[in-house]
């Protein structure tokens, strides 16, 4: 039987990855199998056969459903070649815009420490120019972090170690220790702070992680990716952000994978009942396909909508709600009910990533206007927590295998893995297989902390979310007030003479004290579970 040979440039060639991209014309000799004993397994009878050898899996594609088909092995991934034989252009990780933080979670009164691509950054509001600025988080004097500084009365960024002050262009405007009649050392080039190009789009601060002077006006030539629904007034979707103890690659491929939702998030996310239910959770085959893949990302198609990966950070999808749910309503109504996913995944450092999300929708928008963001974040963080530990361990296992590529470690036989395979194919084909850290890290992952620290919400979300931080402080204050009221009420009852207050009033006050104490205890548990740590045990769900 004839077999389609996979391109040497592809990480995986599969029936759910469309072959619309340019393919290498270099041909490799067929491997000789007469001395090998192959173990073949047929999946979806009309699509794929797989060979498993130790920890490695190789993917095949056939044109027939016959299990006895002759097969050809995919060659190891090689650099993609253009038609003229030149190596295909590599993705430059430092020539793209990266989202840093939503401005709704940035306080203009203080500088904020953030990290992108291993770069330590400080984000601060320059009130003199009415712009958010992004600097290298290092004072040129003694390398103290500027993010621990303050914004002085003249709107300058001040290092609190020795008081050096910088304007929005990174120029040093004051060195208190320099004598006024001495040389103007504050004007020396060495006294300036590195400034990164930055802009605001979709109410998010973006940074260009290359401070070379040639990129000073890069915003005039290249803007951050534009996502129309984020600026469409008919859509509403509050934003959120969170830091994760696993890498950018694991984060983004997990968000591209709808097949895990009924299992890792069982009971937390609505999942339509499939026509044929094979288990309690309701997992089913998914029709997914990558239609176009190039250096800028890929377009994806699934049964209920379209998806787009915009390299390197953005994955967004548009879902036809009524088609997804199978609702029987008019065509006019169907065309107006859309739910979108906007996920921004930022590489922070090996084993660490930042996630910015929004779920714009054009129905029920009034809910977002009256319900505070922190209430949405409680449920969203519970969903994120339910597979956080799985992903952290998964990344460490892949690293421990020391696989030369992701395909050597993972077995992906179904169409539901199409987008994950598409992302890994893009990463291998254009991105060098891993994030380019410019030699700042050895490549080793940080050690795994205890589970409670790993799944901590306070330091990974609450402190950097203005809404949740305010809610946590307010609820904590209410908890203390309830405890105080309980103690004061009991004290009044205790010191009041018996003939000065009736038994009914005394009983009422004691009841109030008990209720206040019980409410404070319940509130303390609520605060801990929703703003600090909420474990998720899949065995008891």
Automatic annotation (TrEMBL):
Q: Which InterPro entries match?
A: Cholesterol_7-desaturase (IPR050584), PaO (IPR013626), Rieske_2Fe-2S (IPR017941), Rieske_2Fe-2S_sf (IPR036922)
Q: Name one Pfam family in it.
A: PaO
Q: Which keywords does this chain's UniProt record carry?
A: 2Fe-2S, Chloroplast, Iron, Iron-sulfur, Membrane, Metal-binding, Oxidoreductase, Plastid, Transit peptide, Transmembrane, Transmembrane helix
PROSITE patterns linked: RIESKE
UniProt superkingdom? Eukaryota
Show where the Rieske domain sits: 97-207
GO molecular function terms attached to this record: 2 iron, 2 sulfur cluster binding; chlorophyllide a oxygenase activity; metal ion binding
Q: Name one GO cellular component term.
A: membrane
Q: According to its UniProt record, where is this protein located?
A: Membrane; Plastid, Chloroplast
Answer yes or no on keyword Transcription.
Answer: no
What is the name of this protein?
Rieske domain-containing protein
């Amino acid at each position: 039987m004839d077999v389609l040979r996979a391109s040497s440039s592809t990480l995986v060639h599969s029936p759910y990855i469309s072959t619309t991209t340019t393919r290498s014309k270099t041909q490799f000799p067929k491997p000789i199998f007469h001395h090998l004993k192959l173990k073949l397994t047929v999946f979806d009878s009309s699509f794929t056969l797989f060979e498993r050898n130790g920890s490695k899996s190789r993917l095949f594609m056939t044109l027939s459903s016959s299990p006895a088909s002759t097969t050809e092995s995919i060659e190891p991934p090689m650099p993609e070649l253009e038609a003229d034989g030149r190596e295909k252009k590599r993705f430059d990780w430092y020539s793209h815009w990266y989202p840093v933080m939503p401005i709704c979670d940035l306080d203009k009164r203080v500088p904020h420490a953030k990290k992108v691509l291993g770069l330590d950054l400080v984000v601060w509001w320059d009130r003199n120019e009415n712009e958010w600025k992004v600097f290298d988080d290092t004072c040129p004097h003694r390398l103290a972090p500027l993010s621990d500084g303050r914004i002085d009365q003249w709107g300058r960024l001040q290092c609190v170690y020795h008081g050096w002050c910088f304007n929005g262009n990174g120029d040093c405007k004051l060195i208190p220790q320099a004598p006024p009649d001495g040389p103007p050392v504050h004007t020396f080039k060495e006294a300036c702070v590195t400034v990164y190009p930055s802009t605001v789009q979709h109410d998010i601060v973006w940074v260009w992680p290359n401070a070379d002077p040639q990129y000073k006006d890069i915003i005039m030539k290249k803007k951050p990716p534009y996502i129309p629904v984020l600026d469409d007034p008919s859509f509403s979707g509050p934003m959120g952000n969170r830091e994760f103890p696993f890498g950018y690659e694991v984060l983004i491929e997990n968000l591209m994978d709808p097949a895990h939702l009924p299992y890792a998030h069982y009971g937390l996310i609505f999942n339509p009942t499939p026509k044929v239910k094979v288990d309690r959770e309701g997992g089913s085959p998914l029709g997914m396909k990558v239609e176009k893949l190039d250096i800028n990302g890929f377009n994806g198609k699934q049964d209920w909508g379209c998806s787009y990966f915009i390299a390197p950070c953005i994955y967004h999808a548009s879902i036809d709600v009524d088609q997804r749910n199978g609702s029987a309503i008019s065509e006019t109504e169907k065309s107006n009910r859309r739910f979108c996913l906007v996920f921004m995944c930022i590489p922070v450092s090996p084993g660490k990533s930042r996630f910015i999300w929004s779920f714009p929708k054009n129905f029920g928008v009034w809910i977002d206007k009256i319900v505070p963001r922190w209430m949405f974040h409680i449920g969203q963080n519970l969903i994120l927590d339910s597979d956080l530990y799985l992903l952290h361990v998964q990344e460490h296992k892949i690293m421990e295998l020391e696989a030369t590529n992701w395909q050597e470690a993972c077995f992906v036989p179904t169409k539901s893995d199409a987008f994950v395979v598409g992302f890994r194919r893009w990463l291998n084909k254009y991105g060098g297989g891993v994030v380019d850290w410019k030699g700042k890290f050895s490549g080793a992952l940080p050690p795994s902390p205890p589970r409670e620290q790993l799944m901590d919400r306070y330091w990974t979300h609450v402190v950097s979310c203005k809404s949740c931080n305010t809610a946590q402080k307010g609820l904590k204050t209410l908890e203390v007030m309830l405890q105080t009221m309980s103690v004061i009420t009991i004290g009044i009852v205790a010191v009041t003479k018996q003939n000065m207050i009736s038994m009914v009033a005394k009983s009422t006050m004691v009841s109030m004290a008990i209720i206040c104490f019980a409410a404070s205890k319940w509130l303390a548990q609520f605060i801990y579970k929703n703003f600090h740590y909420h474990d998720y045990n899949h065995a008891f769900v």
